[in-house]
Amino acid sequence: MIKTSAEVRQAFLDYFASKQHQIVPSSSLVPGNDATLLFTNAGMVPFKDVFLGAESRSYTRATSSQRCVRAGGKHNDLENVGYTARHHTFFEMLGNFSFGDYFKEEAISFAWGFLTEVLKLPKEKLWVTVFEEDSEAEKIWLEQIGVAPDRLSRIGAKDNFWSMGDTGPCGPCTEIFYDHGEEIFGGPPGTPDEDGDRYIEIWNLVFMQYNRHADGTMEPLPKPSVDTGMGLERIAAIMQGVHSNYEIDIFQGLIRDAAALLGCNDLEHKSLRVIADHIRSCSFLIADGVMPSNEGRGYVLRRIIRRAIRHGHKLEAKSHFFHKLVASLVEQMGQAYPELVQQQAIIEKILRIEEEQFGRTLDRGMLLLEEILDNLKGDTIAGDDVFKLYDTYGFPADLTADIARERQLKIDHNGFDVAMGLQRERAQQASQFGTDYNEQMKSDHDTRFKGYTNSSYSSTVVEIFKD
Ligand code: ATP
Ligand code: MG
Ligand code: MG
Ligand code: MG
């Protein structure tokens, strides 16, 4: 029986291995070959140069379970965490890839075979979409696979033309959705209620045909290729008979442990879900060499850590709790990711330092924020206030926005940017060296970060401990 996340992952890799795919281990979350990308956000990222024809491998078919982070840049799901049943900042993407080998027909029939024959999902639960101009894919679904016409829809480029980032490989796609049942709100893809959580997208098959350049032009790839991605947590939820990803095995362990640490009895509390999500992304990012900092990737990491700490505060955390969850994560995922086990002590140490640091200002920042909210007229927190929380108490703007959203309020992003700009000018005037620490504070797009190699952990950490 295929039920646990580990069993689903293994069944996927075995299936594609049986179809002559090379099993390739997950790459780092820090893309090694790509200065245009913040984090590895899809299974195809490590193969980007193979798609572009700039690199060749000894195989033309590959399969992987790739760790991904979507917390900045083009694919950013940070704001969805805690609000949908299906989004994480960190998740695993199961994928199969053809580098100029098979194309639409095989890609579609492999995917259908895995879902209906290996996992034995009922066909009437599956819905599909194709890119509106792709009659070829539509024909394969209707005529060769035999999908009922009323369960297929044609969708525009927003959802069915996939690209990794603003530049790079891209192409039309076809997606497979699972119907979680009528008791859940939502409509099939392409209908007005599609944003509900009833029909959940599980698998995206991308027909990689173009390389998009910075000026927007699209050049055909040397060979049409295939890139597919299926969220492990989403398909595991289906196999475990639950609706939300947060109810699957891996998350239940984390949520139980977080609840015990925080003395919270409500296992469905949104903050527990957010914390369980964030411990995964934060731990894996650190394991891959990202360190909390005030710029680039490190600042994205710091923002996620602070959001988690704030959710702990909301649950009235009595002490530093976040780093203690690393042990729980290692228990859930250490077998699949031995690097987590190896790095456990360092991850705990870095998270604890971040907790101590932010813990010093969090209480006072929250007091100020409550005061601001008490006096608020209208529904928007002024940019100057958001800036003050940021500048004096270390509240990243997105953290303040997260709190505001819980109370149906907004923040004035533009006003915050203006206040930030003014401070930057002051800092530049004050410093003959022109060091501008705020330059990258808000940026999701910093590409100059050099990354860390495994061997540089110790020296990096020493630096962090010094300041
Ligand atoms: P959605 O529309 O649900 O946000 P997506 O279209 O952005 O998903 P793709 O870029 O097509 O997702 O990625 C391929 C697959 O990866 C998705 O079909 C889904 O199963 C999974 N996936 C995407 N984003 C997430 C996420 N934030 N958390 C968990 N799984 C995800
Ligand atoms: Mg998405
Ligand atoms: Mg989608
Ligand atoms: Mg998609």
TrEMBL record:
EC numbers listed for it are 6.1.1.7
Instruction: Give the EC class as a word.
Output: ligase
**Catalysed conversion reaction:** tRNA(Ala) + L-alanine + ATP = L-alanyl-tRNA(Ala) + AMP + diphosphate
| Cofactors required | Zn(2+)
Which keywords does the record carry?
Aminoacyl-tRNA synthetase, ATP-binding, Cytoplasm, Ligase, Metal-binding, Nucleotide-binding, Protein biosynthesis, RNA-binding, tRNA-binding, Zinc
Cofactor note (record): Binds 1 zinc ion per subunit.
Output the GO biological process annotations, alphabetical, semicolon-separated: alanyl-tRNA aminoacylation; negative regulation of DNA-templated transcription
Q: Name one GO molecular function term.
A: alanine-tRNA ligase activity
Ranges for domain Alanyl-transfer RNA synthetases family profile: 3-467
The subcellular localization recorded is: Cytoplasm
Which Gene Ontology CC terms are recorded?
Answer: cytosol
Q: Which domain of life is it from?
A: Bacteria
Write out the similarity annotation. Belongs to the class-II aminoacyl-tRNA synthetase family.
What does this protein do, in the record's words? Answer: Catalyzes the attachment of alanine to tRNA(Ala) in a two-step reaction: alanine is first activated by ATP to form Ala-AMP and then transferred to the acceptor end of tRNA(Ala). Also edits incorrectly charged Ser-tRNA(Ala) and Gly-tRNA(Ala) via its editing domain.
Q: What is known of its domains?
A: Consists of three domains; the N-terminal catalytic domain, the editing domain and the C-terminal C-Ala domain. The editing domain removes incorrectly charged amino acids, while the C-Ala domain, along with tRNA(Ala), serves as a bridge to cooperatively bring together the editing and aminoacylation centers thus stimulating deacylation of misacylated tRNAs.
Q: Supply the name of the protein.
A: Alanine--tRNA ligase
What is the species of this protein?
Answer: Thalassomonas viridans
First and last residue shown, out of the full length, are 1 to 467 of 866
